[in-house]
Amino acid sequence: MNVLVTGGAGYIGSHVVEQLVKAGHKPIVYDNLLKGHIDAVSEEVQFVEGDIYDFSFLKHIMGEYEIDGVMHFAASSLVGESMTDPGKYYYNNVAGTMGILDAMREVGVDYLVFSSSAAVYGEPKTVPIAEDAPQVPTNVYGRTKLIIEGMLADYAKAYDLKYVSLRYFNAAGAALLGNIGEDHKPETHLIPLVLQAALGKWDNVEIYGTDYPTKDGTCIRDYIHVCDLATAHVLALDYLIKGGESKVYNLGSQNGYSVREIIQAAKKVTGKEFSVVEKPRRAGDPAVLIASSEKIKKELHWQPEHTNIEDIIATAWRWHSSHPDGFAK
Q: How many whole angstroms separate alpha carbon 194 and alpha carbon 274?
């Protein structure tokens, strides 16, 4: 399969590209490099610098490379920013995805694997969260993902699009070889921030909210290794190629860790001490998000290989300690 990977130079996208190559597919990375990094893309992989809003160019690339399927990662994804600048998120996420879908339709590309989010659920009534749980997002980012999922369902009915939407929350870790990893600017994800503090790049680690109804007052999330996420995306694509119907799947570890627990695990892995500062809650942060992955395990036979949080953090530490400035030369 020739697979167009939008946002393929980003954190999750670049790890998925590696898995696609291993599986025998031919990925074509399509990225505007506003958030992605050219050094995250192997020289053996075709890279095209482009924007998902450049409809004519996007359509041209799909035709030129005879694209069979699309994996879509290009999106704005900061929960806090989505609450203060919602217009950016509706434009980048919703309008951007519509452009991709319309380009696919004109060129005749029928398969899409979409990077969704457990943020579509909002404050869950039961944990772990199953796919049929109520979807009431508490932030604009989650709302845009839910709108896109509705759009995919409508396009599937009207235009015979076949898609898999994968809902996950906290991707973590790095490639086992240490060649690619997480490098966001600004960085907002907990594990890289903690590891950067261990490297002395930050004076402290900030905890946003210590009065949540959890065991230690801090938010609880499940963390899934980015390589396990990548494997699930390839399985989803293969499922569609073999004639599978459109589906929605959760991806998670089914184990929840609080912010304090992640900090302690990072200190243990790195052997470093650093300061922690407690701050008020951020708008839109649910107290607990833990996803059930039983459906994708049963139907697509997905089995995560990296489930121990210290092992996950250790792969991230290998990347950050050898690349203290990320992909910067």
A: 9
